[in-house]
Design a protein that fits this description.
The structure holds 2 protein chains of 2 kinds. Chain A is mainly alpha-helical. Chain A has one domain: MetI-like fold (Orthogonal Bundle). Chain A is built from 8 helices and no strands. Chain A is elongated and about 70 Å long. By secondary structure, chain B is α/β, with parallel strands linked by helices. Chain B has one domain: P-loop containing nucleotide triphosphate hydrolases (Rossmann fold), CATH 3.40.50.300. Chain B has 10 helices and 10 strands. The longest helix of chain B has 16 residues. Chain B is globular. The chains are: A mainly alpha, B alpha/beta. Chains A and B meet through helix 5 and helix 6 of A and helix 3, strand 6, helix 4 and helix 6 of B. The structure holds adenosine-5'-triphosphate (ATP) and magnesium ion. The site of adenosine-5'-triphosphate has 11 residues of chain B, from strand 2 and helix 2. Chain B: It is a peripheral membrane protein.
Amino acid sequence: MFDFLDLDRYDLFGAFWTTVQLTVLSGIGSLIWGTILAAMRVSPVPIMRAFGTVYVHVFRNTPLTLIIVACSQLLAYTLGMTMWADFGTQSLSFRLAVLGFVLYTSTFVCEALRSGINTVPVGQAEAARALGLSFTQVLTLIVLPQAFRAVVAPLANVLIALTKNTTVAAAIGVAEAALLMRDMIEQEAQLVPIAILFAFGFIVLTLPTGLFLGWVAKRAAVKR
Amino acid sequence: MSEVPLAKEAADAAPPAEDLVVLDKVNKHFGALHVLQDINLTIKRGEVVVVIGPSGSGKSTLCRAINRLETIDDGSITIDGRPLPEEGRELARLRADVGMVFQSFNLFPHRTVLDNVALGPIKVRGQDKSLARTRAQALLDRVGVGNQAGKYPAQLSGGQQQRVAIARALAMEPKVMLFDEPTSALDPEMINEVLEVMQQLAREGMTMVVVTHEMGFARSAANRVVFMADGRIVEEADPHQFFDNPRSDRAKDFLSKILAH
Ligand SMILES: Nc1ncnc2c1ncn2[C@@H]1O[C@H](COP(=O)(O)OP(=O)(O)OP(=O)(O)O)[C@@H](O)[C@H]1O
Ligand SMILES: [Mg+2]
């Protein structure tokens, strides 16, 4: 049944490796940018709050494919931005895809963090401010450590969704798993086994994320 | 070289302002609700002022406005001669000099009792960690919870938690301490242990603003009672005169209600 699996012809592991790289790089970028966005959304500075709010609403409600395609079209062709594509081995479209995923996924990271922050009683931030701690100190020393527990499960969902969303990068020609799948289906005309194979591949990728973060959440709950 | 010590001497030589906290025509609205109406209040260094009044009269708002946890619409608030700064570094510095004790303690549940007390001096004042911990331990001893230092707040009784909260505020060596109903969330048998700590503080000369309905405390520790109703200061008097001989009808009415039970 799996005789189509000609590993000399199809770089299956290479394609999934690209998916992993897309996920990890976009995940790290989204966590950083999403945390900054969340800090903006709870900050006392109105302009920052407004920017955070508008950003989240615009990017969260735009279809991912549109963002990815727009990234590749607008930045690469119209603005002539090359994203340092002459460095390293990754292609320009790979970098643009990471950029698009970060722009999009960070909004979900931001909202997961923000809902976690909202589970921490306001009195905590007030007591911390009353001591003279700065906004950043209040956030990093008092609020985020307490929000963490409430944030792990939603963040796991965001990262799992990201792993699956990376298939959208096929739209701009990144040689990741979904592109290879399309290719193989065209060549081999064995739709069902190929689909099962790739579905299994994605489960292998996402399951550890879920299990690991589930374990982290338990640890956080037991602590103290 | 000589500039620095001279400047410091000059600063030391300047007589400290007698009036530590000054509120001048302070107004505050919550939407249509006028919670603070033309509040004028001066608190002198070393003075203990008890704020009393019916629920919703604006006592908490007044207290919170003094360290700008609530912003005000107009008027001015100065602390030790300096007006309250806008949000930012300056404000944080000023808040470090104003201790605050909340009705619901608000200890940091993810840190030990000792860390709760040492956190401010380490992170805000940049104090050496071991020195801050030694001083935190001494403060905990002073408020009678020294043997709880390694525990987490949730493992302590309400009375113990509130005494830790007082130690946490004192660790910053504040110029003035604000207490917003510090004993209202406590079981009756724990109220006295907290009041005793506050009474001792008052005797040691700490400047204090205390929102409380504890008349015993007001009579024995307060220099002045401020009675608020509907966002206004209705009466200001010596505690004995206020409780034995209130002048305003609002105060008479209020006192008859709280004395009834
Ligand atoms: N954040 C807020 N938003 C809107 N209204 C508020 C807010 N905080 C307080 N209020 C209202 O302002 C009024 C004064 O509140 P405040 O908490 O200062 O009263 P209080 O004298 O401390 O009362 P209590 O004895 O119940 O603590 C109340 O009517 C209250 O409902
Ligand atoms: Mg109140």
